[in-house]
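Morning F.,

Quick status update on the modeling queue. The single chain you submitted on Monday has been processed. Sequence for confirmation:
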Amino acid sequence: MSLTHRAEGEERVTPLELFFDLVFVFAITQVTGLVTRHPTWGGVAEGLVVLALLWWSWTAYAWLTGTVDPEDGVIRLAIFAAMGAMLIASLAVPHAFGDDAWLFVATYLAVRIAHLGLYALAGRGDRELLGAIVRLSYGTITAAVLLVAGAALGGNAQIALWALAIVVDMMGAFIRGSRGWHLAAGHFAERHGLIIIIALGESVVAVGAGTLGVPLDAGVVTGALLGLVVACALWWAYFDVVALAAERRLRRAEGAEALAIARDSYSYLHLPMVAGIIFFAVGVKKTIAHVGDPLHTVPAVALCGGVALYLLAHVAFRLRNMHSWSVRRVVCAAILLALIPAAVSLPALLTLGLVAAVSAGLIAYEAIRYAEARDRMRRAALSPG
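Structure tokens below.
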């Protein structure tokens, strides 16, 4: 049996891929809910580990569907099956460190094994691709053993072993190199851009969820609007110039360089971006529910630190692609982190207002101070070639 490869020059994201991403939307919602229900450092650790595992499985399929045609009959059915497994894994997230640990491991590994199997079929006759799959499988198998051991032991050992599992799996792709993989640059960049939008959508959903059972008074309405201001600023920070310039850089790179950029900039560095958005969503959800009360420590760290993490991931993203870094975004991230001690004593609405002011101020400063350079970069990024 052979699989249909993606047509040369065909880089559009297909409806099936968008459908697949909807399951990841639910996974993000479950992670947000996990941390919101358990706003402790242990809950944060669990949320980060589960998010990283789910992210790595999602980005694996982003690579796969950049190689094969996802509308091929066999691939379509396999993706439906992977969606089912990821859906059950997502359903298991709230109790993944309890009664549903084995269910999460079994369904997560089903997603990963199906990915490797499909890639092996796609690589028939392509020794370089098959070699890359074999090299990747070493880390995946080691991670699987660690996940099973963690589920068996439970408690703190489970968190530690699952964290080690995702580190081993992700670092395996780095240590063993990117040689042999195929890449559709525009498709890959668009898939990851869409997942940023999905994560931002979760922050908007969190605003709505925070109002459930709460009277819509002036404080709640103001908090909802401030949460949207931050979400808009985060969107602008990525899509105005950064995403366009990064895609152009990826398209211009060739061979191993392009594969390494895709791995580092997208598969790795988009994870802290998504994590930052999710933790902001946790913080804003807690804020909307109690606008007049100070935030507890973990929600305060999530609200301010989530946006800071997102900006710092942008700095690393630019450094990897453009070999330069944004001092202004580092400064804003530092200001947000410095707000955390005050956030545990100030009214939550005021803290959210300060986060919104810093975020919107950054965007306004960049748009005005670098208007000409921004215009040139956008024209260059949008021009062909």
